[in-house]
Design brief:
This protein is an alpha/beta fold. 20% of the residues lie in helices and 21% in strands. The protein is built from 4 helices and 11 strands.
Length: 184
Amino acid sequence: MPTKAELRATARRHRATLTRADFADAIARFAGDLELAPGAIVAGYFPFRDEADPRGLMAALSAKGHPLALPSVEPDKPLTFRAWAMGDAMHSSAYGIPEPLASAPEAVPSLVLVPLLAFDATGHRLGYGGGFYDRTLSLLARAPLIALGVAYAGQEVPALPREAHDHPLDGVITENGLRRFHHT
């Protein structure tokens, strides 16, 4: 099996071929398929480069009364989620990714939308290698939490290597719908 670095390079190139302008709207129509408690906080992300765009889904969930949050990134630390609403002021992180201002209050999400390079049929994901989401999901897993990958359907691969620190997804949402994974 190729190394994770080789898999990341291949998956990044492949994902760039899958982008579609209507993706955000396509996944928004599945917002009703998510079984969230009233008022549950949804942590999304602001898409970077050719990441699958969750903003349509985030807007649909916000319209259903779910407060939103976005991650703030500090090197080698778990993500901090901060309250955010469409149109709020943002700044660029050290990685060039838009994130809420430091003055925005911290939020503890019930649903985390997770970007990825690839996923497999068992709910494992290939991230970017920084470990931000794995560290964060492991910490948040102490409370009820849904980790939902956001991906183009074509990002699915037959299998991915796993390490002890890899946190599996509870589901993935693509332009084809919501798919749940069951872990023992």
